[in-house]
Amino acid sequence: METNNDDFIVVKAKENGVQVIGLTRGQDTKFHHTEKLDKGEVLIAQFTSHTSAVKIRGKAEVLTKHGKVESES
Ligand code: TRP
User: Fold this and answer.
1) Model-level pTM greater than 0.90?
2) Quaternary arrangement and interactors, per the entry (predicted)?
């Protein structure tokens, strides 16, 4: 699968039940995967030929090449 290996994000859950939702690339923008994280769990994810955007629900710390941002619940 085609990936841009530089373009990954780190998501650290600050509460239980944080959802990391992948949205499809292309004309239709739909959810294609939801990963659930509990407090303290970390997910490292890439943007791929299938994934153009990521939505995060719940309180989490998100690191990207653009810096650090916190989502809130
Ligand atoms: N099968 C998905 C893909 O290759 C896996 C994935 C990659 C993903 N990055 C993601 C799922 C971000 C959720 C969020 O695109």
Assistant:
1) yes
2) Oligomer of 11 identical subunits arranged in doughnut-like structure.
Atom of ligand 1 nearest to the CA of 51: 15
Nearest CA to ligand 1 atom 8: 22
The answer on pLDDT for 60 being more than 90 is: yes
Residue to mutate, 32, 33, 52, ligand 1, most ligand atoms under 8 Å from C-beta: 33
**45 closest CA partner among 23, 14, 20:** 20
Closest CA to 53 of 39, 41, 42, 64: 64
Task: Report the CATH number of the 3-65 domain.
Answer: 2.60.40.50
